């Protein structure tokens, strides 16, 4: 049976690591196209100026418009060609990072997240939107970024909510990888760019599952301590561990270990207006609980996850993600979106239908609300 694992060529993380950006640019050439929102550039401007001077490289600022659209990608490709840029840098949040992936197309790419809110920085995929911000398509490239550089000083000075949201995204990693492993379902790492599914399909590796488990264990051990450090804008060993967990362990775990019900139900929840004001990872924390209900996970495991979520401030019930009331018809719509043929919910080790999803959402919501009430 074919197995696959994918990862960045290099991952570096540390305080003031951005000062070394010029070193990595130099491995490709003399200049780089910098894809970043103006606000993010301003936040790290002194470090960018220092690294350019130290290593004698040039950063070509792109005037990124904030949306990962086909039109913006084409404009930036043209700009890179005009300036003969040796590599592409995606600096900032998800949109800048995904745009850089689309511009680089798997070649000479440096990713520099300024928040640790998701596990997207290490992956070989991106999400395209229309210029108006509506979903367009997914894009996959032949390889993951060449370098993923994490400046933990920058991350620590971002709002704590981003770090906590990243923990919510990371929380699902082990449970989805476990389900995918038990069902021998294919993973994204097995679908290289340009291959047909029948040719590229592969299951995850034991290494990916082990990383996913370490991801969960580190969240339990260091999550609350890391949140406290971020609240004070300080870098501590626990904070460093959680940044690595949110970005590297979760990134490798989801892409090479697989997704299952939690992310599919998250996608379904986007049908509910109230959820639109919450971050991806905040919603995934709740849908992880929904997946555990689907699996009939042990009471001990459910309580462990609930306790973790409450300790760092992650959602455990529908009101926590802006849904104070919901009809059965609305939940049926959520379940229908979660159960479409191409969704990852079908990687669960048993058949899942819409009725099961509706029931699991209702029960997870009830369990979460009761758990919070007991703690008050």
Molecular structure report:
This protein is an alpha/beta fold and 376 residues long. The chain has 2 domains: 156 residues, Rossmann fold; 214 residues, Up-down Bundle (Dehydroquinate synthase-like, alpha domain), CATH 1.20.1090. The protein contains 15 helices and 8 strands. The strands form 2 sheets. A 6-stranded parallel sheet has the order 1-8-5-4-2-3. About 1% of the residues have low confidence.
Secondary structure tally, helices: 15
Mean pLDDT: 95
Which CATH class of the largest domain?
Mainly Alpha
**Low-confidence blocks of residues:** 193-197
In CATH, the topology of the largest domain is named Dehydroquinate synthase-like, alpha domain
Number of spatially distinct domains: 2
Largest sheet: 6 strands, parallel
- Overall morphology: globular
**Structural class determined from secondary elements:** alpha/beta
What is the CA-atom radius of gyration, in angstroms?
20 Å
Q: What is the CATH architecture term of the largest domain?
A: Up-down Bundle
* Strand neighbour order, sheet with most strands: 1-8-5-4-2-3
- How much of the polypeptide forms β-strand, as a percent range? 5-15%
Please state the oligomeric state of the protein chains shown.
Answer: single chain
Order of helices and strands: EHEHHEHEHEEEEHHHHHHHHHH
Distance between the termini: 50 Å
Instruction: Supply the CATH superfamily name of the largest domain.
Output: Dehydroquinate synthase-like - alpha domain
How much helical structure, as a percent, in the residues? 40-55%
How many beta-strand elements?
8
């Amino acid at each position: 049976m074919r197995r696959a694992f994918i990862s960045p060529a290099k991952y570096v993380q540390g305080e003031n690591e951005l000062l070394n950006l010029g070193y990595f640019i130099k491995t490709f050439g003399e200049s780089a196209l910098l894809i970043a929102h103006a606000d993010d550039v301003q936040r790290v401007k002194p470090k960018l100026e220092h690294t350019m001077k130290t290593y004698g490289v040039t950063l070509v600022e792109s005037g990124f418009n904030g949306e990962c659209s086909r039109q913006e990608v084409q404009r930036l490709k043209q700009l890179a060609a005009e300036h003969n840029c040796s590599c592409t840098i995606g600096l900032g949040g998800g949109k800048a990072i995904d745009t850089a992936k689309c511009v680089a197309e798997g070649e000479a790419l440096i990713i520099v997240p300024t928040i640790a809110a998701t596990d997207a920085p290490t992956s070989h995929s991106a999400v395209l939107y229309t210029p108006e911000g509506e979903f367009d398509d997914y894009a996959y490239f032949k390889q993951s970024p060449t370098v993923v550089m994490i400046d933990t000083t920058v991350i620590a000075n971002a709002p704590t909510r981003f770090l906590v949201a990243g923990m919510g995204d990371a929380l699902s990693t082990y449970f989805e990888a476990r389900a995918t492993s038990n069902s021998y379902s294919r993973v994204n790492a097995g679908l290289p760019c340009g291959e047909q599914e029948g040719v590229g399909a592969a299951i995850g590796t034991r290494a990916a599952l082990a990383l996913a488990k370490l991801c969960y264990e580190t969240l339990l051990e260091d999550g609350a301590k890391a949140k406290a450090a971020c609240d004070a804008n300080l870098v501590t060993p626990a904070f460093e561990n959680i940044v690595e967990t949110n970005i590297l362990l979760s990134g490798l775990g989801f892409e090479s270990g697989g997704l299952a019900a939690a992310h599919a139900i998250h996608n379904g929840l986007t049908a509910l207006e109230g959820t639109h004001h919450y971050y991806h990872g905040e919603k995934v924390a709740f849908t992880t609980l929904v997946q555990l209900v689907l699996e009939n996970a042990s009471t001990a495991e459910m309580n462990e996850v609930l306790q973790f979520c409450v300790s760092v401030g992650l959602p455990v019930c529908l009101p926590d993600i802006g849904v104070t009331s919901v009809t059965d018809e609305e939940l049926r719509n959520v379940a229908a979106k979660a159960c479409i043929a191409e969704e990852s919910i079908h990687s669960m080790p048993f058949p899942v239908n819409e009725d099961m999803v509706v029931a699991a959402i209702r029960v997870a919501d009830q369990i979460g609300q009761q758990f919070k009430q007991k703690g008050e």
